[in-house]
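Bit of a strange request maybe. I'm writing a small parser for structure token strings and I need a real example to test against, not something I typed by hand. Could someone generate the tokens for this chain?
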Amino acid sequence: MTPLLADWGTEPTPQALQAALQQGLPGFAEGRLWIEKLQVLKMRRSSSKRRHPHPLAVCVDLQVHEATSGRCGVQRLYGKAYREGASAGAYTQALRSAKAPVDFGVALAHLPAHDMLWWAWPNDPGLPQLPTLLDPLRLQAHLPTACGADVGVSEVQALRYEPERRATLRCHLRDGRVIYGKTFCDDHAATVLARFEQAWAQAAQDPLAATVALPLGQDEATRCFWQAAAPGVPLLELAEDDAVTALRRLGQALARLHVHAMPLAQVETHSVAHWLAEAHLRAQKITRVAPALAARAVALVQQLESAVETLPDLPLTLVHGDFHPDQVWVHEGRLVLFDFDEFALGHP
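Reply from user aminoacidic:
Good idea to test on real output. This should exercise your parser:
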């Protein structure tokens, strides 16, 4: 009997996933299509039924060869495992929704041997708007007026993709401009747009505040908000002397983010205790999947706990929530911040 991918003691290897897909996907199982290589883009495995009803979720890119025509290309797939045979009922329900054409294979596949469903890009059960957003002709009708949609769309590319949650898009307009969109599984686009509009207005009044890419509006039907291309150079590409100066200015900009009012709709509260609990959970996961790193992970959590004891007792303020160097650019001496999706109330 074939073991369930989601029941293995560790995350399935790319080789195991490739074998399961080659043997189970329509068109592949019959030999018409062949997987030459599989790359894992994202994977989440969980044994907790309460926290994650799906024990395995994985996104992969397949290098595919079509036997009859010799055609080759890449097909992205998103797979989700179920428990105790529940994939059969989920498959019946998923068949009722509209499907977009795919490059290789079928839009939706059921692998009962592994209790899994697999969606082929651009099909996604949580982001049914993706086919519209990725089609230049269909997208044109969904761009806000400020985008200048009347000039036409020449190309759309997906830059980042979190299955069933969000995707970031780059759109090339026929007049040569490039704009960026972010679409969500819910109505979060309006909230994020409001945050960028507030940051844009604040930057116009305060030269020490960080600026942002110009917000252009949102489209409710596709749950997507749009921005102009941001000017500047990534922080990590600066020369050392310029980077030191930029980091000093970054401290000032973050301080202003903490103290100035921002739209707080859908903002969660993440206390220091919350983040320490998250650090412990991550150390446990690392210990389980990479035992050789267990001691380092535990030691790091202990260092964080010691550092917390020295923090001043300050009221919680607005924090970025997902801050790292890639979120920062510099333009003419001014900081440019990105990605306001995870704003929260936290320790400054």
